[in-house]
Write a structure and sequence with these properties.
Elements (H helix, E strand, L loop, with lengths): L5 H20 L8 E2 L1 H8 L3 H13 L3 E4 L3 E4 L4 H23 L3 H24 L2 H18 L3 H24 L1 H19 L3 H18 L5
Helix pairs in contact: 1-3, 2-3, 4-6, 4-7, 4-9, 5-6, 5-8, 6-7, 8-9
Length: 221
């Protein structure tokens, strides 16, 4: 391969990777389904080689299980994975809660102001019955809070956790309309707790919030 063609190859691999991963996360490729390289390549608009590379990367991340000459199985979300993701979330979010409540008042005010549009998006999604939009705003809310804690390494780990939880959230919100409304109420209360620097209240809200998701998904913590 000549040097000029390398960027195109990287672009094809990235397109195949991102496209396949997004379809796994949003449920287009359901857990338990078997993916074929040729079919995915046609869908993504790439050749089979970058799709094969994408499959290898997604297997390393635990989203796929490869079977030679048969294809790639989309790994279903298991109870153990849900439990592990939620436990890891709790550790990071408790840290973030304590850190943001210790920020100066002006910085807390800016954070709350950045969270309000996400609350409005969730409210609109509830009214419109748009589970996917609700899940996107939910992720944005929590990632903004964790980012405000000022630890980029934890923020990167948290983003990876949220990738895993996208599929879980779609199931959770689709299963239980009351949980969706409670999720929004929790977020509104979290924003108020940040505004008033109520560290104890914010930590308690986060733990209850995560426990609620676990309950909807039928996982004991």
């Amino acid at each position: 391969m000549n040097r000029d063609s390398q960027p195109d190859a990287r672009s094809a691999r990235e397109r195949a990777y991102q496209g396949t991963k997004q379809r796994i996360l949003d449920g287009t490729y359901e857990g338990g389904s078997l993916l074929n390289e040729a079919d995915v390549a046609e869908t993504i608009g790439a050749s089979r080689t970058p799709v094969r590379d994408a499959f290898l990367s997604l297997e390393a991340e635990g989203f796929l299980r490869l079977y030679p000459r048969r294809g790639a199985l989309v790994v279903p979300v298991s109870a153990d994975e849900i439990r592990s993701v939620l436990e890891a979330r709790e550790v990071i979010e408790e840290f973030a809660a304590r850190r943001v409540c210790g920020l100066p008042a002006a910085e807390r005010s800016d954070l709350v102001a950045s969270l309000r549009p996400l609350l409005a998006e969730q409210d609109e999604a509830v009214a419109g019955g748009d589970d996917a939009a609700f899940a996107r705003a939910d992720r944005g809310f929590h990632e903004a809070l964790v980012a405000a804690a000022g630890n980029p390494i934890l923020a990167d780990h948290y983003t990876a956790l949220r990738d895993r939880q996208v599929r879980m959230n779609l199931v959770a919100f689709a299963r239980d309309d009351e949980r969706t409304r409670q999720n929004l109420a929790d977020h509104e209360a979290m924003a108020d707790a940040i505004s008033s620097a109520d560290e104890t209240g914010l930590v308690a809200l986060m733990v209850r919030h995560i426990d609620g998701i676990a309950a909807v998904l039928g996982v004991r913590r």
